[in-house]
Amino acid sequence: MIRISDLDFSYGDKVVFESFSLDVPSPVAVVTGPSGGGKTTLLRLIAGLEKPGRGTIDNVPGRVAFMFQEDRLLPWLTAAQNVAAVLPRSRRHTAGTYLEMVELSAEAGTKPGELSGGQRRRIALARALAYGGDLLVLDEPLKGLDPGLTERIVPKILTFGADIIVTSHSDFETKLWGGGIVTVGG
Amino acid sequence: MKRSTTTTPDKKTKIIKAVLAAAFWAAVWVLLSWKTGQELLLPSPVSVGREFLSLCARGDFWLTILTTLGRIVAGFAAGVAAGTLLAWLTSFFGAADAILSPAVRIVGSTPIASFIILVLLWVDKSWITSFISALTVTPIVWGALSTAIGQTDASLLEMGRAYGFDAVKRLRLIYVPSVLPSWAGACATAMGMAWKSGIAAEVLCQPKRTVGAQLYYSKIYLETPSLFAWTAAVIILSMVLERVFRLAIRRASEK
User: Fold this and answer.
1) Which of chain A's residues have a Cβ under 8 Å away from the Cβ of B162?
2) Is A19 left (phi over 0), alpha (psi -120 to 50) or beta?
3) What is the least distance, in Å, from the CA of A147 to any CA of chain B?
4) A48: nearest CA in chain B?
């Protein structure tokens, strides 16, 4: 279990966390709370993308797959190439499997600029799944996806075997993930 | 998939506009030359065209063109290589930036004529075209590429770090595709500058069998149509090379 103890973090003068402590539920933790409340910052701190001013974050697994709030796809690569980019050479041929998981096999050869926002989001999700690891940190992975697709994709991620920390903006998504709920900034 | 070979309306309009613009400037030239009435000051397009065709029929014309072309292309290639290497070094290594950047900036701001005279003291005349072209191209490519490297999308770089991209992967998948358009644009601009500076160096130093030397002789023997014809040859060559370069870059980036 990831343990956050006595954490301080701020962006310049804006304090996001002050003496914040938390035992992150596992295997699934759903992070909720108002916009600007610190959900993304918490995920970035856990993934090691931000350094806390004070305090500790313990028991974070070695390999963390982080899905950013923005797609951050390489616009010059196709969907399949974006996924393959995070795979070792010997496993690059498996990129299609991850696109299939997010129901984007037909768009494997298409570049992100020619896809909708929801489709780009799914490529970013496929990329995080392909990178794998012991912990999946997913920042708004279902943004822009219709409910039917969300219902089909979430169970596939849950069977992945890794611990998951995910942000959610709706009760519908929170129920689907079905893990322990962490509220920040509320 | 077959490529369409039909001319689109946009392309047609572009061609018509280009032809009209050329016709306009040809008319201005004819008018000015007729008004001046002196071939020595401003030859007519007809006499320049006649001179150009007669030059084309001579074997030594092509040999001269090839000599200058070869030297400028060699200088351009060396300048692009040096500018590219320096940009990567100064962007990623603080010590290299501290040592090399001021030197490249000084080279970029020094008048070409000063360099031509100075370089003439150091190297053989036959090297001057390549040397000056390379010296002109290097700061242009370095400046544009350094700026482009500095402006690489930080969010993509962070993504690369989060997914464990090593230096080679970051370079291949993020930096190179990001900076390629700026680098190619700078190289195309630098190619024009390589021609100008290379020919200027040849005019000042007159190495054997070069376009610049021919321009100089045309001037001292008061053969103005010949001066115009050689200039036309340089312009055509420069435009063709720039076109070929842009096409090669486009093909490479498509791959």
Assistant:
1) 47, 49, 66, 68
2) left
3) 28
4) B162
CA dist., res. A7 & res. A52, Å (int)? 7
- A138 Rama sector, left if φ>0, alpha if ψ -120 to 50, beta otherwise: beta
What are B66-116's pLDDT values in tens digits? 999 999 999 999 999 999 999 999 999 988 888 888 988 888 888 888 888
Q: Quick check: bond before A27 cis, omega within 30?
A: yes
pTM of the model: 0.82
* pLDDT over threshold 90, residue A16: yes
Helix (H) or strand (E) holding B46: helix B45-56
ipTM above threshold 0.90: yes
Phi and psi based region of residue A71 (left: phi greater than 0; alpha: psi -120 to 50; beta: remaining): alpha
**Over the stretch A88-104, which tens digit does the pLDDT of each residue have?**
999 999 999 999 999 99
What is the spatial distance between Cα A137 and Cα A49, in angstroms, rounded to a whole number?
12
Residues of B in contact with A131 (CB under 8 A): 163-164
